[in-house]
């Protein structure tokens, strides 16, 4: 950590023993940067419950702070309550609280409709034990009925007790600054840490971005697309773009950076070094 800013790295729970071993190596490489915490995602509807817990405990066992993600859609209060209690029993004090997406084929949405209800539930049942992070969308959530409604819904999560927020990734720095100004104007004072997604593979990034509402600027999309199978050129351009973005965000006052690592240390480490963190 530097200058009281918060830096963190996100992983997904590996499904195979090879994946577990690889993540261990990735973590060792990233631990040298002394992040504030490592977070671990949670599969929709609790599908990775055990994998998330196992990864979190391993991180904690290595002496690092771990923040499990927890999504509530399709869950009951009892099942979420049991997960929270399990984390608390293990001394975990940091949660990324999300609604999640309804998995196809799931019947009923369960007892929580939106993330603000999960935040309120965590506060109701555990007081201030957990530091609660929530998600923010500088380019707005794909299901938002309007930009204004999405801002109001973000504010709802803060009023329910969120301590800080991590954004969806984006490649337009202005979207972040506009979002922060808009929520500050509504009285929100919590830190809003931008999420940075390195560019490793164009088709995968385009698919993710279309699904989550993150815009790949036209000039960047066309250039990346034109590289075809030339992974080295895609990565080289991606490193330039993401480093410049990180630099703009930090020099514009962002309170840190959250890196979406996809369980790989290489690109993230290069961005980190180029930013001189
Ligand atoms: P919410 O804040 O509940 O918002 C969802 C939508 O509902 C928005 O359009 C919002 O405007 C609207 N809304 C919110 N509250 C209300 C209300 N009271 N009334 C009417 N409309 C409302 N997904 C996973 O499955 N696992 C993960 O581990 C995971 N980690 C993530 C980490 C980060 C940092 C981010 C940015 C996203 C992550 N996601 C994860 C994706 C996330 O679950 C999806 O984007 C999901 O669609 C929305 O979750 P949310 O918590 O932002 O929902």
From TrEMBL:
<dbReference type="GO" id="GO:0106312">
    <property type="term" value="F:methylenetetrahydrofolate reductase (NADH) activity"/>
</dbReference>
<dbReference type="InterPro" id="IPR004620">
    <property type="entry name" value="MTHF_reductase_bac"/>
</dbReference>
<protein>
    <recommendedName>
        <fullName>Methylenetetrahydrofolate reductase</fullName>
        <ecNumber>1.5.1.54</ecNumber>
    </recommendedName>
</protein>
<dbReference type="GO" id="GO:0071949">
    <property type="term" value="F:FAD binding"/>
</dbReference>
<dbReference type="InterPro" id="IPR029041">
    <property type="entry name" value="FAD-linked_oxidoreductase-like"/>
</dbReference>
<keyword id="KW-0285">Flavoprotein</keyword>
<comment type="pathway">
    <text>One-carbon metabolism; tetrahydrofolate interconversion.</text>
</comment>
<dbReference type="GO" id="GO:0009086">
    <property type="term" value="P:methionine biosynthetic process"/>
</dbReference>
<comment type="similarity">
    <text>Belongs to the methylenetetrahydrofolate reductase family.</text>
</comment>
<keyword id="KW-0274">FAD</keyword>
<keyword id="KW-0560">Oxidoreductase</keyword>
<dbReference type="GO" id="GO:0005829">
    <property type="term" value="C:cytosol"/>
</dbReference>
<dbReference type="GO" id="GO:0035999">
    <property type="term" value="P:tetrahydrofolate interconversion"/>
</dbReference>
<keyword id="KW-0028">Amino-acid biosynthesis</keyword>
<comment type="pathway">
    <text>Amino-acid biosynthesis; L-methionine biosynthesis via de novo pathway.</text>
</comment>
<dbReference type="InterPro" id="IPR003171">
    <property type="entry name" value="Mehydrof_redctse-like"/>
</dbReference>
<dbReference type="Pfam" id="PF02219">
    <property type="entry name" value="MTHFR"/>
</dbReference>
<keyword id="KW-0520">NAD</keyword>
<keyword id="KW-0486">Methionine biosynthesis</keyword>
